[in-house]
Amino acid sequence: MKRMLLFGLVLAMAGCAKFPSTGGTSGGKLLIFRLRVDGKIRTGEEPGSAGQPFIYMVALRPSLSSNPTEQGPIPVLAPPWGNGFVAGNCTHFVWWNPLQFPRYAIYKFQDVELNTYTQVGVPINYREVTSGAKEIYFEINLSQLEPDPEVAARLESIQVNFLTMDRIPQSGTVKFWDAIGNGNIPSQINDYLVIPLRTSALYQNSDNDIEPRGDQADPDLDIVDWSVEVRIQ
Predict the structure, then answer these.
(1) pLDDT in tens, 141-199
(2) What are the φ and ψ backbone dihedral angles of 125, each rounded to 5 degrees?
């Protein structure tokens, strides 16, 4: 069972600090994403981590519908692993990965099975993760997801999921993870967000607390806050 968490109202407006440009285009619709964990972002430099960071991603699917009926991005939780991180309907994802440069990158799936993907860009702005930081933050332009301006102009919403995990498995039977919804409640495991794209607005976890603290025992994976801002420029 899945729940679709649809935001249909203009909730708030907020300012945002700007950072040096790292690619993409200006103008159009800016999408600003923030993910916060209860502990810290695991970079792989911590004692005992063997150089392996945790996985922090934002999965995306733009839609021509304001209330899409297709399932949005959902976490992969058990074998068969597929790509190991996202299932459902997903077209793109942004991955903060300290083992690559730049550390933030935008990827696009090449097949409906979500087994093949390629890097198509980097966020136009982002914040580097410093030691002990709790958040990842980046900004992308909608044109980086849909380069055809006529199609981009007709997009009504974007389905979003925030994903954390200790690994991207191809074998074994267990991984530790968190995503939108309460992971302790089976009916919420396949939750995702539907964010309107027609009006500038800020959507955040504090509006309805759909992502609780403590549904993942590891604080470095436990998502406790998120926000998505749509800014029409």
Answers:
(1) 999 999 999 999 999 999 999 999 999 999 999 999 999 999 999 999 999 999 999 99
(2) -150, 150
Please give the torsion angle defined by the CA atoms of residues 60, 63, 68 and 74, in that order, rounded to the nearest 10 degrees: -10
Q: Quickly tell me which residue has 């907020």 as its tokens.
A: 14
Of 90, 85, 82, the residue nearest 109 (C-alpha): 90
Query: What does the pLDDT read at residue 48?
Result: 87
Domain definitions of the chain by residue range? 4-16+23-232
With a cut of 50, say whether residue 212 has pLDDT above it: yes
Query: What gap in Å lies between CA 54 and CA 86, rounded to an integer?
Result: 15
* Contacts of 159 by beta carbon, 8 Å cutoff, 6+ apart: 60, 61, 62, 63, 68, 72, 73, 89, 192, 193, 194, 195
Residues in the chain: 233
26: amino acid identity, one letter: S
Range 11-43 burial, b when 16+ CB lie within 10 A, else e: beeeeeeeeeeebbeeebbbbbbbbbbbebbbb
**Strand, helix or coil for residue 119:** strand
Burial of 173 (0-12, 13-18, 19+ CB in 10 A): exposed
Q: Is the pLDDT of residue 10 over 60?
A: no
Give the tokens for residue 119: 């890097």
pLDDT band at 4 (very low <50, low <70, confident <90, very high): low
Q: Which residue has the tokens 């300290």?
A: 98
Closest CA to 71 of 162, 194, 230, 227: 194
